[in-house]
Each structure stands twice: as C-alpha cells, then as structure tokens.
Amino acid sequence: MDQGSYRTADKPYERDTRYIETRITRDGRDGYPVEPGRYRLIAAYACPWATRTIIVRRLLGLDDAISLGLCGPTHDSRSWTFDLDPDGVDPVLGIPRLQDAYFARTPGYSKGITVPAIVDVGSGAVVTNDFAQITIDFELEWVDFHRPGAPQLYPEDLRAEIDEVNAVVYRDVNNGVYRCGFASSQQAYDAAYDQLFAGLDWVSERLKGQRYLVGDTITEADVRLFTTLARFDPVYHGHFKCNREKLSEMPVLWAYVRDLFQTPGFGDSTNFAQIKQHYYEVHRDINPSGIVPKGPDLRNWFSPHGREKLGGRPFGAGTAPDPLPTPAG
Predict the structure, then answer these.
(1) pLDDT (0 to 100) of residue 78
(2) Which of 13, 17, 146, 286 would disulfide-bridge 150, Cβ 3.0–4.6 Å?
(3) What is the pLDDT of residue 328?
(4) Where is the secretion signal located (predicted)?
C-alpha cells in the first residue's frame, strides 16, 4: 500500500490549507442551508482535526441532526477509506473511499482528501472540509438543533480572546508537532522544536491559575488544544521527535488534559489504538517498518487531576452530554 510522502526535501513542512470553504448556514447563503438529516460528517478517531468535530458534535447534542461516518485509522496516498464498515462501504453514502465524495463535488479533485468532511447525502458530494470553520458553524449555525443544556463553546463575549488563543495554539502547537515530525532538515526541525515547546510553555503558564484556556468553562479553544495534547505521549513525543519531555512530565498540561479527558465528550471521543495505528502505519517515510509501539501505558489517564480546585464549571450553565455505553477505545 502506497501511503505517499509527507516531507519535501530541504524545506520546512507547510500544511496545505486549500480547503473547500463552502459553509452550511441558517440562511443557506452558500446554497447549503442548515437542515437536520441532510448532511453526514465524515471523520476519523485517528485524526486530531477530525476528532475536534466529533467532540463538538457530541457536546452540542447534534447526533440526530448530523449523522457520523467513520473512516478507518489507515489510508493510502489516494484517500481515507471506510474499512471499519461491512464490505468497506459507508452504509449511508454507499462509497468505499472518501475520495468518491470529493470527486462528486469536483471531478478529478486535486487537493487533499481530508477529514473531517461534511457530505450532502442527497448528492453524495462534499460540502466542506474547512475543519476550523466546521466546529464554529456547529456552535453558531446549528444552534436550533442543540440539545437542552448544550454548553456555549464560542460565547460572543469571549470570541475575540478565543480567536487569539486559537491562533497561537494552531501555529505553535497543533501544527507545530507536524512541523517537527515532517521536517526534512536539521535546521527546520530545530526551529520547529523550539517554537513548539515555547508554545507549550506559554499554554502551561496560562493554565497555571485557571482551569480552562478562556473564561471559566470549556470553549472551542480547549477542544482544539486537547486533541493535540491527547496524542503527545502516544505519538508526537517519539514518532515526531517532540521529545524535550513527555506530556506526563509537564505537571500543568498533564493535569489539564486529564481533566478534559475525564469530562464526557472528550475521553469517550478518544481512541488511542486508532491514533497509534494511523501515525505509525501511514507515515512510512518516518517509520518505514510500520511497527506500532505497544506503549505507553495509558491507564494513568484516569488518575485524579486536582484541577477542580481552580474552580470553573465545565459546561457553564449547561449540562454534560449523556454518557456513552463504552469509551471509544
């Protein structure tokens, strides 16, 4: 299976951000109005960008309004695939590859076949794969279909601060780990490494005296940071050479991420087995053998975190989503 290459010789890693920016809105100004049952979110537990949408969909209770299709943890250079489903075909869209939905939108689509993607079930075509906008629109455009007690993840009075924090976290942390892992020169790696850990130190300092990144409740900012931190010890520390120290050796961030992990919507949307399988099997230019490490021991994710002493209310005036029967993995 050809997984493709993720590095360009002698150049720093640059993420392809040419996304399909069509939006699903209440007024339908892009031709796609909010309509329950019309759209299918295609995601993967392996992918941090996609897991954000899984978490937000669950926190807001959009399960009945937007169906969820899950790709398997591995893919080839062409596309994510539905190998978790019977016969390897998505049961709603009837396709074996996410690429098929992109081609239904744009024949011969030449940009990245990425998750998350939202597909218009009727046409079978991708509407958007703009991961940063998808969760914001879940929070603001789909509000009529939020569950009773849904939290305010992007409250109006905190949006400017959330946006500022998100910009730093994306540049230095979310994308920073990839800039380390996919660096093709020592110079590029060294610069990325320094920027990543400066970003993590900045976040840690911010979280010393407050339970959440912005305000006293969980917001969009916490969702975005969590999916990177959750992958740090299992993947980024070794596989991406982000090894100044493990997350479990950074007291503030380790307590913070366990606090979120133990909050409904976060830990039950995290599948460590699929995360490890994805990175170590797909990135063959980094890990040619495809061997997936057995460690680290993840049982300590359920240990007491003590962050409740800082105050704050996870869901504000809202409530937690109903528990799932079992964790994702």
Answers:
(1) 87
(2) 146
(3) 52
(4) none
Amino acid 77: pLDDT: 83
Is position 178 annotated as part of the catalytic site?
Answer: yes
> Annotated binding residues for glutathione, as ranges?
80
- Residue linked to tokens 């063959």: 284
Q: State how far the alpha carbon of 145 is from the alpha carbons of 70, 161, 319, in Å.
A: 22, 26, 16
pLDDT at 135 over 70: yes
Residue pair 46/73 in contact by the 8 Å Cβ criterion: yes
Single out the catalytic residue among 47, 71, 180, 242.
47
Q: How far apart are alpha carbons 196 and 217 in whole angstroms?
A: 25
User: Going by CATH, does the domain composed of 156-310 fall within 1.20.1050.10?
Assistant: yes
Locate the domains of the chain by residue range.
156-310
Across the strands, what pairs with 75? 80
In this structure, what DSSP letter does residue 80 have? B
Quote the tokens at residue 248.
């479990």
pLDDT tens-digit map of 6-21: 555 566 666 677 899 9
Catalytic annotation present for 39: no
Output Rg (C-alpha) for the chain, integer angstroms: 19
| Binding residue positions | 80
